[in-house]
Every structure is written in structure tokens, then in C-alpha cells.
Design a protein that fits this description.
- InterPro entries: Ald_DH/histidinol_DH, Ald_DH_C, Ald_DH_CS_GLU, Ald_DH_N, Aldehyde_DH_dom, ALDH7A1-like.
- It is an enzyme of class 1 (oxidoreductase).
- This is aldehyde dehydrogenase (NAD(+)).
- The protein is 37% helix and 21% strand.
- It is of the alpha/beta class.
- The strands form 6 sheets. The chain has a 7-stranded mixed β-sheet, with helices on both faces. Strands 2-9-8-7-10-11 form a 6-stranded mixed β-sheet, with helices on both faces. It has a 3-stranded mixed β-sheet with strand order 1-4-3, covered by helices on one side.
- The structure holds 2-aminohexanedioic acid (UN1).
- 2-aminohexanedioic acid is lined by residues 159-160, 164, 237, 293-295, 455-457.
């Protein structure tokens, strides 16, 4: 595994860093097992309270320096981080694939998202625009400025072990913030690799120690971050359960959070759809990343007149899927992250059956040569009703539910009829349906697509969703504003002091 060497990963790694420096911690050891072959890849030492506090103090101190760098200078450093990622795309993509279990192409794709967000952030560093306003008072000027906020906590999930961090970090840095990252304890080595890559660039540019911090650990470290008043913004990706707890803790201290939580994404397949296109979109959306994206397609809402035909096509396509080692590019579907995820998958299939679902493609765990890790499962399809509790719930596995509709209103109501609101799509060539779906009376999700599946969003748009998805937006568009504080300035260049609203206060 030469990629580990290329990424400076040791069998045992310190897990707490302020940039180039690594701190000795008495925290627990976290072992990383690959779901690809079940083997132990390495370990990291989690942060203990003492090293955690040292890191946050350093991040606060570094903020005071970093915020004084002109934003385009910060952007230049981020440009170089993008360049370094280009150099390391191959080994880092492989590590993502091996540690997390997604296909090699998707591993590379994830590193590409990191590169893309760096490019985006470089341009952004010259475009942190505020508005100017006309004052109601004579010889006065009003405008707003966006100032850096402070330390940004980033809590990321195993399924996008590096890209989601980069969406946050690249933006936070050009905005003048420092970052403290807690990667998922299921993919700790990805965090180590990225830390090394960024450290080289930061060192060369004399970026203060503390701008890019890493604190490995489990839930307790996440809790320290969410309660920590030194961290004005916490950006967290993960389950709705985690997000609800974190949100309460951050809100209780009136901090800010960006939440990117669960999805329960559907594609509506209209009678006017290009069915071949719909098939591809549904297939990648449902089985890509073994159903472990927040944007994974979990429900297909199919028009009754094309239902049987589409179902047959889908069943046939599932029959052709190759499940196996994700580093082998001939395979379509890799493993789930670990055995706990496999247990949840099996339990969900059981619950679906009990609640009345009818499986048209059966699930199951694969065994035998190549499947020794016990994490490879069969993507499955069930006909179900939208109101089954299991259908209302996000199961992070390749289980796809099919349902029928008659009218477009009914289809949209089904699509919206879940607690989550991340991604949605309609496959149709009918312009009226498409526009209705995108209208204020259409999809209630943060992402709504026409003739594209639910997953695979580009970094240029704001990424995130409504309802139990948490409401946060990351990545493109003006998502950067969440990482800054807005200040309204009024300047009087007259010789008088006129008051607003025409108030007179003469002596
Ligand atoms: C996630 O699953 O947390 O749209 C992020 C997509 C990817 C990002 C998914 N660009 O599927």
C-alpha cells in the first residue's frame, strides 16, 4: 500500500495537531479498519482534554494574526493547497477509497471536489463583497463589511471523509478564520493525510501555527467543540440525531452552527420522462457509494403508467451490478463502512418487510473470497408506502423504495412528505411539471434537480437542505457569508449631526 507511505501515514499516528506540530495526547487509541478487506490500516491517538484546550488556544491566537493577512493573500495560500492536492490526488483518492470503501473513481472525485473548492475560494478571496446603501441623512455614507469570525469547528462524517472538510476549511480560511477539524472516528487516517498535505503548504508560506488544526476523537471531542465559547461557528455533517444535540449545545451559548444532516431523497419519474436517462440517474443515485451519501436516492416516485416498465428495467440493471473491492474499477458497488452499518441495513430490511414492503430485488450480506470484511451487501429494492416508518427514516445503505403516483400534485406531496429536505429530482420532459416542481409550491428541499439524479452536486452551488437536514449551506454561491460577521457602517462627512428618522435633539 504505497499510498500510505506517500501520504506520510505511520502504523501509529498522533492525532492532535496545530498545523505542522503534533501534540502528545493521553487520549484513547482509534484503530482504523478498512471495510474493503477488514484489515487494520493504522491507528491514531485521540485528543484528551488538555491537548484539546491547547489546540483551541492556539487557534484563537492564530486567528488574531491570520485575520490581518489581506484576503487575497490568504487566497494565494489556498491556491497552493489546491495545487498540492492535485499532486496528491492519486494516493489521497486511494486512501479515501480504501479507508471508507467508496469506489476508486469516487475517491478521486472527492479529491477533485477539494481541488475545485480551493479554486472557488481563491476567486472568492477577492469577492467578499458587502453592499453600499444610500443614507437618509445628507453628506452621510452607509455600507457594510464582512469581517472574519474566529475559530471554525468542523465535524465531518465518514462518507465524505475529506471533501466536506475542504468545503468548510477553504472558505473559512479565505474569510480569515482558523479551523479545528474533528474527522469521523471511522476515517481518521484521511484526516492525518490531509493535515500533512496542508502543513507543507502552510509552512512554506509562513502561515501561523494554529490556522489549520486537527483534533481526532469520538463523540466527546464533538461535545467539547459544541460547548466551547472560543468557537463561534461549528459546521457539522452527520446524522439528524447528532445534529439536534449539537444544535442545542451551540444555540445555548448563542453560537452559530451550519448543519448538514440526513436526507431522504426522492426522484419523481414522470410518464414524460426519458426512461433510459431516468434509469441511469436512479441507479447511480441509489447504489453509488453503496447508498452512503446524504444525497443518495432512497425513494422513486413513479407514474403509474410507466411503473411496471420502469421497475422491470431497474430490476434488470440491479442484476448486472458488480459488487466487490472498490479499488477494482470494474466494480460498481463497494462495502458499507463497517459491520454496525451492515447490522443496521439488515435490521432495516426486516423492519421494511414487517411494515409491509415487498422486495423485488432481495438484499443480503455477501460472503466468500473477496468479501472477508463482512461489509459487502446487496443493493435491494422494495415496493413500499411513503408512510411506513422505515421509509420516513434515513437508512445509510443501498435500500431503494418504489411507490406510484397518479397526479403531479400527488407526486410532489409524496416527495415532500418526509421529515428530511436535502435533495430531490424529477425526470420529465414536460415543462409544466418541471416548473411546478421547482416553484415555491414544488419541492421543499435545498436541492431540486430536473433530469439529473439527487446526488453528485457541484461545489459551485450552495449545498444543504431544509427541515431535519438542518438548514445549513456549505460550499458555493454565497455560503461564505455564514463564516463571517457582518458590520454596518455609517459615516458622517458633514459638519452637522443630523439624527436618523428626523429626530431633533437640540439644546
Ligand atoms: C454528503 O453525502 O455528505 O452531492 C455530501 C453529492 C456530493 C456531496 C455529498 N457532492 O452527492
Amino acid at each position: 500500500m504505497d499510498f500510505l507511505e506517500k501520504l506520510s501515514i505511520q502504523p501509529a499516528n498522533a492525532g492532535v495537531s496545530t498545523g505542522s506540530e503534533w501534540l502528545k495526547s493521553k487520549g484513547e487509541r482509534i484503530d482504523s479498519y478498512s471495510p474493503v478487506d477488514g484489515l487494520k490500516t493504522g491507528s491514531v491517538t485521540a485528543a484528551d482534554e488538555h491537548t484539546y484546550n491547547q489546540v483551541i488556544d492556539k487557534a484563537v491566537k492564530a486567528f488574531h494574526e491570520w485575520r490581518m493577512w489581506p484576503a487575497p493573500k490568504r487566497g494565494e495560500v489556498v491556491r497552493q493547497v489546491g495545487e498540492a492536492l492535485r499532486t496528491f490526488k492519486e494516493p489521497l483518492g486511494k486512501l479515501v477509497s480504501y479507508e471508507m470503501g467508496k469506489s476508486l473513481q469516487e475517491g478521486y472525485g472527492e479529491v477533485q471536489e477539494m481541488i475545485d473548492i480551493c479554486d472557488f475560494a481563491v476567486g472568492l478571496s477577492r469577492q467578499l463583497y458587502g453592499l453600499t446603501m444610500h443614507s437618509e441623512r445628507p453628506l452621510h455614507r452607509m455600507y457594510e463589511q464582512w469581517h472574519p469570525l474566529g475559530v471554525t469547528g468542523i465535524i465531518s462524517a465518514f462518507n465524505f471523509p475529506v471533501a466536506v472538510w475542504s468545503w468548510n476549511a477553504a472558505l473559512a480560511w479565505v474569510c480569515g478564520n482558523t479551523t479545528v477539524w474533528k474527522p469521523s472516528e471511522k476515517t481518521p487516517l484521511c484526516g492525518i493525510a490531509v493535515q500533512h498535505i496542508v502543513a507543507t503548504v502552510f509552512k512554506k508560506n509562513q502561515v501561523p501555527e494554529g490556522v489549520n488544526c486537527l483534533v481526532q476523537g469520538g463523540r466527546n471531542v464533538g461535545e467539547w467543540i459544541s460547548h466551547d465559547t472560543r468557537i463561534p461557528l461549528v459546521s457539522a455533517t452527520g446524522s439528524t440525531r447528532m445534529g439536534k444535540a449539537l444544535n442545542v449545545a451551540v444555540a445555548a451559548r448563542l453560537g452559530r452552527s451550519i448543519l448538514e444532516l440526513g436526507g431522504n431523497n426522492a426522484i419523481i419519474i414522470s410518464k414524460d420522462a426519458d426512461l433510459d436517462m431516468a434509469l441511469l440517474g436512479a441507479l447511480f443515485g441509489a447504489v453509488g457509494t453503496a447508498g452512503q451519501r446524504c444525497t443518495t436516492t432512497r425513494r422513486l416516485i413513479i407514474h403509474e403508467t410507466v411503473y411496471e416498465n420502469f421497475k422491470q428495467k431497474l430490476v434488470k440493471a440491479y442484476g448486472q451490478l458488480r459488487i466487490g473491492n472498490p479499488l477494482d474499477t470494474a466494480n460498481h458497488v463497494g462495502p458499507l463502512i463497517d459491520k454496525d452499518a451492515v447490522a443496521l441495513y439488515l435490521q432495516s430490511i426486516e423492519q421494511a418487510r414487517e411494515q409491509g414492503a415487498r422486495f423485488v430485488v432481495e438484499g443480503g450480506v455477501l460472503s466468500g473470497p473477496g468479501y472477508e470484511s463482512g461489509c459487502y451487501v446487496k443493493p435491494c429494492i422494495a415496493e413500499a408506502s411513503n408512510d411506513f416508518p422505515i421509509v420516513q427514516h434515513e437508512t445509510f445503505a443501498p435500500i431503494l423504495y418504489l411507490m406510484q403516483y397518479r397526479t403531479i400534485d400527488e407526486a410532489i406531496a409524496l416527495q415532500n412528505g418526509v421529515p428530511q429536505g436535502l435533495s430531490s429530482a424529477i425526470m420529465t420532459l414536460n415543462m409544466r411539471e418541471a416548473e411546478q416542481f421547482l416553484s415555491h409550491a414544488g419541492s421543499d428541499c435545498g436541492i431540486a434537480n430536473i433530469n439529473i439524479g439527487t446526488s453528485g452536486a457541484e461545489i459551485g452551488g450552495a449545498f444543504g437542505g431544509e427541515k431535519e437536514t438542518g438548514g445549513g449551506r456549505e460550499s458555493g454561491s454565497d455560503a461564505w457569508k455564514a463564516y463571517m460577521r457582518r458590520q454596518t457602517n455609517t459615516i458622517n462627512w458633514s459638519t452637522q449631526l443630523p439624527l436618523a428618522q428626523g429626530i431633533r435633539f437640540d439644546l
